[in-house]
Amino acid sequence: MREKNYIAALCCLLALISCASQKQHIEVGKELLQNKQYSQALGEFNQAIQEDPKQYYAYFGQGMAYANSGHPDLAVGSANQALALKPDDAGSFFVRGQAEADLGQPDKAVADLSQAINLDPKKAKYVALRSLVFANAGRPDLALPDAQRALALDPRSVAALVAQAMVFESQGQHQMAIDEMQKAADIEPNNTTVQKLQSMLVQQ
Predict the structure, then answer these.
(1) Does domain 123-204 have CATH number 3.40.50.720?
(2) Using 50, 70 and 90 to split pLDDT, how confident is the model at 21?
């Protein structure tokens, strides 16, 4: 009887250690994502998944890391895993939408980003990314309201400013487009995408 109690206690202890370790990997992964250290974050989330394959956030983090490091196809797979575990996770819809946009699937991207916005309507980056997708798809009528909505939520939304610049340029308002890109560059001076787009506008 004493031996059975010992084994049960040992199993509980091991489970607690595993749970604590998994949480640590996720917390470290979150911090690495915030610092845009995507390859390191991926390692942490992969380890968390190995220890507990039923933790949705680990798949979300994995997807976010893939989406921001040039692997949109893998990001879609990770987001699908996260949504299978938590079907109402706005962040995972956002990740999948971002990946689909990068894969050249605007209709799918808009559908997933719209779902993310419905679940969390105050998240500026969800609305801002949808505005970019609309702008890239040649829908300024939909891109501009989204960009304005995103900027109302977050005046420093670079994605929304870029979307507005794209809309203004498509409408022949060249100087207004340059002004919007300058605002984006002032907020994120080291953003290489913003630098390239700004250079292209100035040279036109």
Answers:
(1) no
(2) low
